[in-house]
Amino acid sequence: xxxxxxxxxLLFLSAGTARGQVPVKERQFVYGINAFAWDxxxxxxxxxxxxxxxxxAGRPSIVSARETLVYFWPTxxxxxxxxxxxxxxVAGNLEVSQTGRAVTALQRQLYVIQYPNGPxxxxxxxxxxxxxxxxxxxxxxxxxxxxxxxxxxxxxxRRYLDALDKAAAARQRGATLPLPSPPxxxxxxxxxSSEVHDGFxxxxxxxxxxxxxxxxxxxxxxxxxxxxxxxxxxxxxxxFTIVPQTRxxxxxxxxxxxxxxxxxxxQVLYFQPFAAxxxxxxxxxxxxxxxxxxxxxxxxxxxxxxxxxxxxxxxxGASGIETITGRPFRIEQTTGEALGYExxxxxxxxxxxxxxxxxxxxxxxxVALLDTTGRTVPGSERxxxxxxxxxxxxxxxxxxxxxxxxxxxxxxxxxxxxxxPRPREA
Length: 426
Fold this sequence. Notes:
2 domains, 26 strands
């Protein structure tokens, strides 16, 4: 009886806990944001309490006026949308003003976002209007063709394996059957596309603006006012991703021009150059997530915009000047006791994982990227330095110093106590 009461009590407590975890949802006007970022469009939400929306200048971004159910998620401290329960478009035009003067009124347009090399292999492509619908239809058709080709391949492979089994059985009986050619697998389908949506395309000069939605009745939609910050970069340069030979999973970055790269003697490094732009840290952080509490208003960060695969890398050091070209490389997992990864050149028929410049460090050297005309690309100069550590054994003596001093003090005190005269007997 007591066990039944305890079990019932636990059931009620668990039910109360489950009810307490259900978030309270409120119907709100929100802006769904697809802000252009260099590694892909960043999808985010601008709900109440309203946050400033950040977008890049010179690059089209999308804001969509919607009604949805909004709830607070305490785990991340953010407001989220329950799009699956409610995702209604709000009619009207988006009014953009600056310092109280009207700049433009944007009309809703159809759009689609596509990634030719996959969702994590930018840059993305944005199509507007009729072109968006045409591109999406082409994507669906190509995807269906790939699906059908894959189905035919699997059927051909099944027949091929059956033929191999029959040939092996015939050989055991002393007969010989002709071996069929293996079927060719279709190439990987990389194109990724969003569905066709509607929104307002924002592409404005740098500055601070105010936006609001004016409905078909001529009234401003309640809760649609937001501050819009359009920002641009401060500097342009060349950044490097540096991959060690046996630690490609832990690449390093050399963002700042004329920065120093430290390496070991005879270490092999793979340099991947990128065009880079420097942005305000707070603005770019809020571009990715308007609700983020991070980002420094006085800080700056480098963003890689595109790989620089053309040109050559010039190395100058004590042994002279050498110019090398970029090559494709492949990552392979090492077997045996020393588990890890290794960078190798791809064999025949193998695909490459990245393209870069292989540099073997023989000492301190200067590195610079050359364009197709042989000129140094501005901002690409770097210094690779091999530090001279000298003998390391004296460093091991440092922790022994306080121990030695302490032992000497204890020995001295014991010696002093041993010299204390004994009291005389009466």
